[in-house]
Design a protein that fits this description.
By secondary structure, this protein is of the alpha/beta class. It contains 21 helices and 11 strands. It binds D-mannonic acid (CS2).
């Protein structure tokens, strides 16, 4: 790509004490940095063995540079860089599943953390229970060498149980409310299908702390890699580019209390109850992120910063926070939700962060329930309006139809993309289209309240008739 010599390790990493499944840009910009800082300020053998479950790409990029990489903080007024030295190895799970199970079963590993995205949990998004029909789950029940992250956790715990080794803590870092609870229910659900005695041991001994994670991290681009190499004189093929803001709220519930000294790191809070933080973050940040992704994409905006630079969408999103989301929330201790909303808008507007609407639009079927539909349901129950969020759902329906407002095809990425597209193509009019999509029970639950149907249909009609920006203007 460029002529610069490759980045290399200059000091040893801490001894590994964790395995992380799903080594994407988010973990490398968030958890990895916190763990490194915790080790630097308070010691501890909490080096991280990373594993990816889908592609060998990140291992192939990191291995030739001794698993170190650069984290670049992108503030509106400039950048700062740091070389991260906390990964001691990276495995590609499908290449050698046995090796990953063995690493996870080693007594020195006390925590297995996860950023596997919503769909990695193999759960039914509307209920949180294990999806027993899921192809990977069916595979993992029948085969000792797993494919899913959940399968790896269960098989590694099985190996520890057999060998009389204490279990590890399972630390979910994905944007799901009750992420600890969801992880516990899918892990125990799978273990029950494999061995009920193992399931009981997991239920008694394993801990699944809930967490709220927050940092905006767009996908790394080739251009970012080239620019960094030109600035530093070293080629790093796995850098990450993130915003300055970082928050990690973690439930204090670890097996034998074994964990890095997270509380030494600015931005981290250890708490007894993560729920108010999770609801605040997922509904206020991720909910509006998804709304802006669909509406912004349809209106022709490439990034979130570009979308909120459009006054129509800025006013729209302010109104959605104030009238539709904040009234559903209990403010976490010491947090003013209106001020939190103002800070979110500043973060979205950061011109140094090019977070593509297309990237956030991915996997809507897995994201909508917790980001938007729960808020709508609370509003319907309380007799409050949800017009902005109805419009967001309508924009998602339009988006998964596969054609933007200029008649250009959209590259829709979603586990249900084909099914949704086929439903929308078969439906003859807007009301059939909306009904077809609302009948997807995994997303909307078994019963769609009439208030949701009427609201989404009205928003969809407006969207088709007047376009994304005009409908958002009318709602705001
Ligand atoms: C985004 C999140 O891609 C998405 O769906 O909404 O990745 C978001 O940037 C993070 O959750 C911020 O903490």
């Amino acid at each position: 790509m460029t002529d610069e010599p490759r980045l290399a390790r200059v000091q040893t990493a801490p001894e590994p004490g964790m395995v992380h499944l799903g080594l994407g840009a988010f973990f490398r910009s968030h958890g990895a940095l916190v763990i490194e800082e915790a080790c630097q300020s308070a010691g501890g053998d909490w080096g991280v063995i990373g594993a990816s479950l889908r592609s060998p790409d990140i291992r192939d990029r990191l291995a030739p540079q001794d698993f170190v990489y650069t984290a670049v903080e992108m503030a509106p007024d400039g950048q700062s860089r740091r070389v991260v030295n906390v990964l001691s190895d990276v495995l590609f799970a499908p290449g050698d599943p046995e090796a990953l199970v063995a690493r996870m079963a080693a007594p020195s590993v006390r925590i297995v953390s996860l950023t596997i995205t919503e769909k990695g949990y193999c759960h039914v998004p509307s209920s949180g229970a294990l999806d027993r029909e899921h192809a990977e789950i069916q595979h993992d029940v029948a085969n000792p060498l797993p494919r899913s992250a959940i399968g790896f956790i269960v098989r590694a715990l099985q190996a520890r149980h057999r060998a009389g080794i204490r279990p590890f803590t399972v630390l979910s870092c994905d944007n799901l409310p009750g992420n600890g609870y969801v992880t516990r229910s899918v892990v125990i659900g799978l273990a029950e299908l494999i061995d009920p005695v193992l399931a009981e041991w997991i239920s008694d001994e394993v801990r699944f702390p809930a967490t709220m994670v927050d940092r905006i991290v767009p996908a790394t681009t080739d251009e970012g890699i080239r620019n960094l190499a030109a600035e530093t004189g070293r080629l790093d093929l796995a850098p990450v580019f993130h915003e300055p803001f970082l928050q990690w709220v973690i439930e204090e519930d670890f097996v034998d209390g074994a964990r890095p000294r997270f509380e030494h790191v600015p931005g981290v809070r250890m708490v007894r109850d993560v729920a108010p933080f999770e609801f605040m973050k997922i509904r206020m940040l991720n909910g509006t992120h998804s709304a802006l992704a669909y509406l912004g994409y349809l209106a022709g905006h490439e990034t979130i910063a570009e979308t909120v630079a459009n006054p129509v969408f800025r006013d729209f999103i302010r109104n959605v926070w104030t009238a539709e989301i904040i009234p559903t929330l209990v403010p976490p201790d010491g947090i003013d939700l209106q001020q939190y909303a103002n800070e979110l808008l500043d973060r979205y507007a950061n011109p140094a962060i090019r977070h593509r609407t297309w990237q956030i639009a991915m996997d809507g079927s897995q994201k909508l329930p917790q980001r938007i539909l729960g808020t709508i349901r609370d509003n319907v129950a309380a007799g409050r309006p949800s017009n902005g969020l109805f419009l967001a759902v309508a924009a998602w329906i339009r988006y998964v139809g596969g054609m933007d407002e200029q008649g250009q095809p959209i590259d829709v990425r979603d586990p249900h993309a084909k099914r949704l597209r086929a439903m929308l193509e078969q439906a003859r009019d807007p009301s059939e289209k909306v009904d077809a999509v609302l009948s997807v029970a995994e997303v909307f639950g078994p019963e769609v309240a009439p208030g949701i149907r009427a609201g989404v249909l009205a928003a969809y009609d407006a969207l088709v008739a007047t376009g994304s920006a005009e409908s958002a203007r009318t709602v705001a």
